[in-house]
Write a structure and sequence with these properties.
The structure holds two protein chains of two kinds.
Chain A (H helix, E strand, L loop, with lengths): L14 H27 L9 H7 L1 H34 L7 H5 L2 H4 L2 H12 L4 H5 L7 H4 L2 H37 L4 H30 L2 H10 L4 H10 L5 H28 L19 H30 L16 H6 L5 H31 L5 H15 L2 H12 L12 H25 L3 H9 L4 H28 L4 H6 L7 H11 L2 H29 L1
Helix pairs in contact in A: 1-13, 1-17, 1-18, 2-13, 3-9, 3-10, 3-14, 6-9, 6-11, 6-14, 9-10, 9-11, 10-13, 12-13, 13-18, 14-24, 16-17, 16-19, 16-21, 16-23, 17-19, 18-19, 19-21, 20-21, 21-24, 23-24
Chain B lengths: L2 E10 L2 E11 L4 E5 L6 H9 L6 E6 L2 E5 L4 E2 L8 E3 L11 H11 L6 H11 L15 H14 L4 E5 L7 H18 L2 E6 L2 H7 L2 E6 L2 E6 L1 H6 L4 H6 L4 E4 L3 E3 L4 E2 L7 E12 L4 E7 L4 E6 L8 E6 L5 E2 L11 H14 L1
Parallel strand pairs in B: 3-9, 3-10, 7-8, 8-9
Antiparallel strand pairs in B: 1-2, 1-4, 4-5, 5-6, 10-11, 12-13, 13-19, 14-18, 15-16, 15-18, 16-17
Helix pairs in contact in B: 2-3, 2-4, 3-4
Classes of the chains: A mainly alpha, B alpha+beta.
Chain lengths: 558, 344
């Protein structure tokens, strides 16, 4: 008899706290998004149902929308071309035995996209590293500054995501399903067509749509590379209308509504597909996947592809960034006599602008991460067993910021907290930045803590009761220690990505204040590129270090 | 520690889990609640523990009235001072063996006596030297022992067992069964044990309570339950039953003779199946009235043989007032036959 008695993980079990949780989320997430929609429906303080669509009838504005869609489609194609062979190599050949590959292949995804784009720009631009290393490349590099280059950069950033999905799907399909196919007389191509692709399709469609949504919501690459080549998309233009003269919040909110709508539509499609076409291909028994041994030309081809991919997605951008950060004079090019650590010295000199930006970033990220895990912990404890609609609603609402493009949330937060009737004067202060980070990354805390909570079997808490623990004692001695890994993971993720966040920082930082992301951005646009790149190295390096340390500590606990 | 339930009943979302029940479990006894899934045995145990709240009735543990619906008394599990061994052990994964066992003492503010009591409990389950290990570093049997040590550490007079052996493999289960009974007897505590395994129930208990659909069908010593069942369901659920008259008269397989003594009743039938068990043959016979019997023989009989079997009068057990009891539905009957097949 295996009844499971769940849903005891609620502390304390009172309903006014549930109400508080809803109020909190509505205030943090719900109202700002509604403000965006309302603002776009009342363009000149007059209600106009069709206002967001009118924006699209303006050919100039429509082109932004269309560019976003086109970009999304190309990036899906680009990521597929990059990810599919890699997924196959990793799932079905001996290359997959190298576990480090999985870690390394996550690096592009963990690199902030604006930093990756800068790396590519530095590599490909006139008199860039490509030309310095291979003078013949000068003929080709100008062609990189086109839609092709932008698609390439974004695909190289996003493909790991699709790779993981496809690889897992390929592994799940397992050898026996294919063996069954071949025993029953299918040839290789027949089997690919009739067995492997259909089973893969559900996962692929899901991954592709996620890539699409992530692409149209992306800000970093359009803001750096896109502007340079004159390819304007929704996100970059929303930013322009809200921060450059002439400021036009009406147009910005309309564009934001359009972006929000597009994302929600694609999320919805993704949801339908994943429900309908997900096969339960994972058997309960141990899986035997057929592993292809790689020999001769196959080994050359397989490893050639893997190394090529790592070169393009990691080596080139990071080489450009690190090399630039070490150059005395950028005009002198790659030479040993041109190497200096002076830029790092300048950044790490207490009191310098770079140092202040760095400290601001770490401080803000630390506060934001702490607030986010506290709120996340509180929310997860209210979600209890996720059986009641209130509990599920709470869950959905708390994950909403992950679905909605960051820039839309920022516009909403500005509309709300900068509204003339807003009594709390936090706009243009530190608190506003922390609040924005918290709203952005609350889903991570909730997800990680929820994962920990779901591993706590109800009987562990019941045993606590039977053996005499009072509610607070049980919470302190049993529930909390078991939730700590989730809390730590949530804190670490929030800290890491807050410390690098660009779009929120650009839009809500008080005028005189800088964080690492805005510092890198402004130095790259109009300043000392080497200083900016040194900051990029420090910022990525430091946050990676935090990840590694926390991971290590987490591994010790078990 | 005596446990007394008066008119206790419980329903979940309108579905009856336990019909009103009166029950006294005497101090120092080993009582087993036996029945198939969903019979209410676990619910009954959880009501005693305080993990569920009865709809009606009252529960007394020792001299403490822990629940009374009419007077609105409900003592939470924390205050009932009992021990419990959970089905999946429910050991806290982030605590060492020592911390797990000491929990009950520390939670009740008896931290001072902890080290002595924990040492005693760990010695009782023979796990000395394992105090600093974590549960995941132990084997299934060792985890089981920690769970038991935890339940006895605070010297509760009543220990509840919720199918504690079902998570172990067959060999270990036999071993732990004997060990558990021995340890319970040595401590002299009152034990309430829930299981769906009749072998476990028969070999461990002083008293067995057979339950079905939230109802207590029979209560008695293991021998009484086996030899003189009062309900056809009990006869079917515990041991094999050969029905002379459906739901009224039965004989157990070991009493089916191949040669007729004087005064014995004889029956004829056809052998439909023979399986070799090593020490004997189990023979399935289809009688003329279509009932299926099981008997044991010392040598192989050919399938299809016409045979005559005999049963001494004193081995025929008649169920009293069988007509009052509603016959189990056909579907249920099938289930129990299936169960018998599985249990073989």
């Amino acid at each position: 008899m295996s009844k499971s008695y769940r849903g005891e993980l609620r502390f304390p079990a009172t309903s006014w706290l549930m109400l508080l949780a809803f109020l909190l989320l509505i205030l943090l997430v719900g109202v700002p998004l509604v403000m965006v929609l309302l603002h776009s429906l009342f363009p000149d303080s007059v209600f106009d149902m069709l206002a967001p669509f009118k924006v699209l009838s303006n050919p100039g504005l429509f082109s932004y929308f269309w560019n976003s869609i086109v970009l999304g489609a190309w990036v899906v194609l680009g990521s597929t071309l990059l990810a599919l062979p890699m997924a196959f190599l990793s799932a079905r050949t001996t290359i997959g035995r190298h576990a480090w590959l999985d870690v390394v292949l996550i690096i592009p995804f963990m690199t902030p996209p604006y930093i990756g784009s800068m790396g590519w720009i530095l590599f490909m631009q006139r008199r860039g590293f490509a030309e310095q290393l291979f003078p013949a490349a000068a003929k080709l590099t100008p062609h990189f500054f086109s839609l092709f280059g932008m698609v390439a950069i974004m695909s190289l950033h996003l493909f790991p995501f699709l790779y993981l999905i496809l690889r897992n799907a390929l592994q799940r399909i397992g050898g026996s399903l294919e063996e069954a196919g071949s025993v029953h007389g299918g040839g290789v191509f027949y089997m690919l067509r009739r067995v492997v692709f259909p089973l893969l399709l559900g996962s692929y469609a899901m991954g592709a749509l996620l890539i699409f949504v992530k692409t149209i919501a992306e800000f970093g690459t359009p803001a750096t590379f896109g502007r340079q080549i004159g390819f304007y998309v929704l996100t970059s233009e929303i930013h322009r209308y809200t921060s450059n003269w002439p400021i036009d919040f009406g147009t910005a909110t309309s564009l934001a509504s359009v972006l929000l709508g597009a994302c929600l539509v694609f999320w919805y499609i993704q949801n339908i597909i994943s429900r309908r076409y997900q096969y339960n291909t994972l058997g309960g028994k141990g899986m035997r996947t057929r592993i292809l041994p790689l020999r001769g030309w196959r080994a050359v081809l397989g490893w050639g592809y893997t190394i090529g991919l790592l070169l393009l997605s990691i080596a080139i951008p990071y080489f450009s960034i690190i090399a630039t950060s070490l150059q005395k004079l950028r005009g002198d090019g790659l030479a040993w006599h041109n190497v200096t650590l002076a830029h790092y010295g300048e950044l790490l000199r207490p009191g310098s602008k770079g140092w202040q930006a760095l400290m601001n970033s770490l401080g803000l990220a630390g506060i934001a991460a702490t607030v986010a895990v506290l709120i996340g912990l509180f929310l997860v404890l209210q979600m209890g067993s996720m059986k009641r609609w209130t509990e599920r609603g709470l869950d959905m609402l708390s994950l909403l910021p992950n679905t909605v493009p960051g820039i839309v949330i920022v516009v909403g937060l500005i509309l709300f907290w900068n509204a003339p009737w807003m009594p709390l004067p936090i706009y243009n202060t530190y608190s506003m930045v922390v609040l924005t980070y918290v709203v952005f990354y609350l889903p991570y805390s909730v997800q990680y803590i929820k994962a920990s909570a779901s591993q706590i079997d109800g009987s562990l808490l019941q045993a606590g009761k039977v053996f005499g623990g009072k509610p607070l004692y049980i919470f302190r001695r049993i529930a909390l220690p078991l939730l700590v890994p989730g809390v730590l993971a949530g804190w670490m993720m929030t800290f890491t990505i807050s410390a690098r966040e660009l779009v929120a920082s650009l839009m809500v930082l008080p005028p005189s204040m800088q964080v690492t992301a805005t510092y890198i951005f402004s130095q790259f646009e109009q300043g000392e590129v080497s200083l900016g790149m040194a900051m990029a190295v420090v910022s990525v390096g430091f946050t990676t270090l935090v990840l590694v340390i926390m991971n290590h500590l987490g591994a010790d606990r078990k | 520690m005596e446990v007394e339930l008066r008119g206790v009943s419980k329903a979940f979302d309108g579905t009856t889990a336990l019909q009103p029940i009166d029950l006294t479990i005497s101090s120092g006894s080993f009582t087993t609640l036996l029945g198939p899934s969903g019979c209410g045995k676990t619910t009954l145990l959880r009501l005693i523990a305080g993990l569920e709240r009865p709809d009606r009735g009252s529960i007394r543990i020792g001299d403490k009235l822990v629940f009374d619906a009419e007077r609105g008394i409900y003592m939470p599990p924390q205050q009932r001072e009992l021990g419990m061994v959970f089905q999946d052990f429910a050991l806290w994964p982030h605590m060492t063996v020592y911390e797990n066992v000491a929990f009950g003492l520390k939670a009740r503010g008896r931290g001072k006596e902890a080290s002595a009591q924990v040492a005693r409990a760990i010695e009782a389950v023979r796990l000395q030297g394992f105090e600093k290990r974590y549960p995941h570093q132990l084997s299934g049997g060792q985890q089981q022992r920690v769970a038991f040590a935890r339940s006895i550490a605070s010297q509760a007079g009543l220990i509840l067992f919720d199918e504690p052996l079902s998570a172990l493999d067959a060999l270990l289960r036999d071993e732990m069964r004997e060990e558990l009974v021995q340890m319970v007897r040595e401590l002299g505590v009152t034990a309430v044990y829930v299981t769906h395994d009749q072998t476990e129930a028969m070999s461990m208990s002083d008293t067995i309570i057979v339950m079905r659909q939230g109802e207590m069908l029979q209560r008695g010593k293991p021998e009484d339950i086996y030899h003189t069942p009062v309900h056809p369901f009990v006869a079917r659920f515990v041991g094999r039953s050969n029905w002379i008259e459906a739901d009224r008269q039965l004989v157990r397989p070991e009493h089916v003779q191949w040669t007729a003594q004087p005064e014995a009743r004889t029956f004829t039938g056809v052998v439909t199946r023979v399986s070799y068990l090593g020490d004997r043959y189990e023979v399935t016979i289809k009688l003329a009235n279509d009932s299926i019997w099981t008997a044991y023989h010392h040598e192989r009989i050919a399938i299809g043989d016409q045979v005559q079997v005999a049963v001494a009068k004193q081995h025929i057990h008649s169920l009293e007032s069988a007509s009052d009891l509603e016959a189990p539905s056909v579907k249920q009957e099938e289930q129990y036959q299936l169960k018998e097949v599985i249990n073989r």
